[in-house]
Fold each of these.
Amino acid sequence: MASVIKDTGEIWGRLFDHRPFIQGEVTFFLREFQEKRSDREVERLFKILEYTTELKESQLDRTEQLGDCHLPSLKANVDVALSMCNRVLQREENFDSDNVLSENRLLRKKEWEKFINDMSNKCERVDQTFQEKENEIQEFYSIVDPTVTIKPSKKLTDFILYDVKDTDGAPDGITYLHSKSKKFKKEKIANATLKIEDLRWLNKYLKENRKTATEKIYLHELFDDSDVILPTPKETPRNPELEARIKKLAAQQNNREYQAMTKSIDSARKFLPEDSVAFQMKQINKQLIAVAQFIFSVIAGFAFGFIGVELIVGDLDFGFRLLLGIICALIIALAEIYFLALKLNEYGFDVTPKSTKLHRD
């Protein structure tokens, strides 16, 4: 019985006794939150205290300086932003107002009317100026010579004969040609001519006709195949004294050419000095003397560089003396070549002797 009661008590203890479980949880809690953490919160509190002390000692003054530097500009920017916001609000209130909108519409309408009036005035002035310039150009290039006549083509003649109805105020050429169709034959009509006044009247008639007619006819179309008869210039007779002087000068020129062609045949008229042998020998001697002078100058320059420098300075190496002689000879040769070319160039031109006049002025 006692064993049964004991076993029953063990069953009760196993089923309803929670002390072992709670004791394990308490042990785990103490191990996690007391043994492991130990003084971690205290250390963190000390670190926070250190940071706070450091900020108080070092960063607080710097923060105040930065605030003193940047807070005025920040305040000014904020004030500007506030003023802009106020202006935006005021404009919004103005736009919302119907009176302001109506006034703006009236102003725009007046400005538009003023612009249209200005543009119309400018266009009128431009048209007027263009018309004036056109009239000036027409007057400048107008043909005022009454002797200029036009022989009309068949197309222009037929138009004047059959299409021109009203000839009141027309020039004589139009009325004359228009009347010919009734009294004379067509052979005589073909010999009729028109003047500039007739074409001007016909051009005005065509302008008026194009306003009402269905088929538009222009003057240049009718003017095709027409001939313009220009006046012949008057021939001015030449002065007889001038003609006689021209004939005299032509005869004298022919005489001079003949004398120049026949001078080699007649020995009495050989007067040029370059034709003689003495002159040629004299020229050859001058050229030979110039060439010889060039050669002797070059030799003298070489001797000065090869021997003279040694006599002045003292003993020198043979190669150095030879180089000095060649340099001096080249310098003198260049100078002599220049002067020799000038000299020979003077002899290269033909000398035209002064001859006696073959004619009298």
Amino acid sequence: MGEVWLAHDLLLFRPVAVKTLRPELAASAEHWARFRREAVSAALLGHPSIVAVYDAGEDMGDDGSVPYLVMEYVTGTTLLQLVRDDRITGSEHALELTAGVLEALEHAHDHGIVHRDIKPANTMLSHEGTVKVMDFGIARSVNLTGTTLTRTSAVMGTAEYLSPEQARGEQVDHRTDLYSAGCLLYELLTGRPPFTGDTPLAVVMKHLSDPPVPPSTHAPGLPAVYDTLVLRALSKDPADRYQTAEEMHDAIRETLTGPVTAVTSPLAPPPALQHARLLPLRGASLRGASRKPRSMRRRRIRLLLQATTALLVTGLATYMITGWHAASRTPAAMPSLIGKTMAEARSNAQAAGFRIQRVRQRACPQPGTPAGRVCNQEPAPGRQVPRHTIIRVTLSPGAPR
């Protein structure tokens, strides 16, 4: 629908991306409205995983006015290109990328915005490693009381990532984005979307009627928990899906940090000494018949000490590796971070063997918590969880003004 240009902000001395509506579409009232909707939707949002919109306007040219958006310039690659280049490094990488998309969706949904076109081509991975969701051109507002939105004149979205309710032209809400996120995760895991066909209509019909094939069918060796996660997101009935982006995000985090269920081979024991080929010591003669008995005993003792030392080193290394891994999976009580500053919370979490990766700021369940202090945490204090679990905290914005 649009063209994107690299430009330089002369006022703030920074590169920006300028998106313009193609001239042949500028005369269309529908495309104008869609372009304006993208500007308004993105302007309502401010999140590290959403491409920011700095400005919007109209360029008056000889052929009439053309709308434009001035946006954050992101250096990186779309997830679609990562899939095509086979640069998804594994199932955990796919989950991490999808988690970034869900963080953006959670923020958008909290502000009443449903994207409606989540797909790998609309998501980038920046050179700094941040997932960036873009193109809110067909996004629509929905109030926070649960009122849904609909479009009856046309089906909006991309066939491979279209939810069944979108395909039927029915009412949609934030769970539509979660279905599309499930399609995205499916493609990151397998290299292909869940449904394909010769025409967009054929693909849409499969979204409506065909059950999705488990991703492990196309990615042998994928743990069963991945199938469970993806297939729930791809439920035909929105009521059977994850109900919020946060819930799906939590399921991904539990998959990443939960107990390992894959069968692993035990460490091989050190090779027996009788199979080792021992080299002669420096200065030793290969003509054993001329050795004195005392020299033979000394050599045997030396070889025995060398072999014992090798076994001790091997055993110590094995113990350190397996012992550390076992310790990292040993459950520990989750510390309470409620009421602490971010610095205090991070220090306490690290001291207990945990880490804080995600920080949110929103209304707190207990009013009155001073601004900038933790008012909620997940997992809850006192819960037994594996060490190195990621703690998600909520910072209080303070008393409402």
